[in-house]
């Protein structure tokens, strides 16, 4: 099945206009709530690179973050949640597993356990952040700095972003190959690409859109090519949405200038409620409603 990229793009655009004040947000008060322990319905996996924003995205969807809460820390293990998703009057149960981003035995085990056999998710939220990943350990930050300095002594924020984007696309390639070649995730029906941390690059949001949605930039990004192939080779429903889970400044590397957030709480709420309602729509498809 090939996706209608014009449609994907126009959905993105309507959210951008809502954040910029042209249209109101869907006021249906969607949210994830704590679910009863019961049959695993609607298994959803949250995937993506280390420091991309998976844990914080889950918490934002579950409305577990309040302004002023402490920051997130690296997740060494999978995080499993059973939740009830509320979108207007609709309720859908979901069991969500957040796969840790850093390459490790735990990550590999979690990925193969989640993607294989009967445990296959019906939906994947794949989290990307246009190169604004958090590198948790000081040793990791030093390693990036050394690599970049060797390539160019005047490396800057853009070089750090490019470094992360390269890793991000390889991570996505791996996910796509598991789905198309290894025939993992047999029950997979949809994938939502969450382009998160938009608050850090709202001034260049169109460039981010073209990096992640096919049909915009020429030549196309490698990410777009992978997404296009996924749409052509499978019947998975694909969506690409801008998102922001919390407002917090970003440090690329210790000696570089930090990037400040460019949105306010109200705009964050608009992004969140559009994301929630799209997710609610995907979860509610085909008999998964309570
Ligand atoms: N500005 C901004 N920062 C964010 C956003 N989402 C996450 N962050 C920050 O990015 C860092 C990483 O977020 P996490 O959600 O912990 O990352 P993760 O993908 O779970 O990372 P691993 O646990 O290593 O796999 C944290 O410092 C967050 O506060 C966002 O929407 N905007
Ligand atoms: Mg995490």
UniProtKB/TrEMBL annotation:
<feature type="region of interest" description="Disordered">
    <location>
        <begin position="67"/>
        <end position="86"/>
    </location>
</feature>
<dbReference type="InterPro" id="IPR027417">
    <property type="entry name" value="P-loop_NTPase"/>
</dbReference>
<feature type="compositionally biased region" description="Basic and acidic residues">
    <location>
        <begin position="68"/>
        <end position="82"/>
    </location>
</feature>
<protein>
    <submittedName>
        <fullName>Uncharacterized protein</fullName>
    </submittedName>
</protein>
């Amino acid at each position: 099945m090939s996706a209608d990229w014009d449609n994907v793009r126009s959905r993105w655009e309507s959210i951008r206009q809502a954040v910029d004040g042209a249209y109101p947000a869907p006021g249906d008060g969607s949210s994830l709530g704590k679910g009863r322990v019961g049959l695993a319905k609607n298994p959803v996996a949250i995937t993506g690179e280390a420091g991309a924003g998976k844990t914080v995205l889950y918490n934002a969807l579950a409305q577990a973050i309040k302004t002023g809460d402490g920051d997130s820390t690296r997740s060494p293990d999978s995080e499993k949640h059973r939740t009830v998703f509320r979108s207007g009057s609709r309720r859908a149960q979901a069991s969500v597993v957040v796969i840790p981003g850093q390459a490790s035995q735990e990550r590999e085990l979690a990925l193969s356990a989640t993607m294989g056999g009967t445990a296959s998710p019906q939906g994947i939220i794949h989290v990307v952040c246009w190169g604004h990943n958090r590198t948790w350990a000081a040793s990791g930050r030093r390693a990036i700095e050394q690599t970049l300095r060797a390539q160019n002594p005047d490396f800057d924020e853009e070089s750090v972003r490019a470094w992360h984007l390269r890793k991000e696309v390889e991570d996505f390639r791996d996910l796509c190959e598991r789905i198309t070649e290894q025939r993992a995730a047999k029950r997979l029906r949809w994938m939502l690409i969450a382009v998160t941390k938009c608050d850090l690059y709202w001034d260049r949001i169109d460039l981010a859109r073209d990096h992640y949605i096919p049909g915009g930039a020429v030549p196309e990004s490698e990410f777009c090519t992978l997404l296009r192939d996924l749409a052509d080779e499978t019947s998975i429903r694909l969506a690409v949405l801008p998102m922001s889970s919390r407002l917090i400044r970003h440090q690329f590397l210790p000696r570089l200038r930090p990037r400040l957030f460019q949105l306010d709480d109200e705009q964050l709420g608009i992004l969140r409620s559009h994301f929630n309602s799209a997710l609610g729509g995907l979860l509610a498809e085909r008999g998964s409603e309570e």
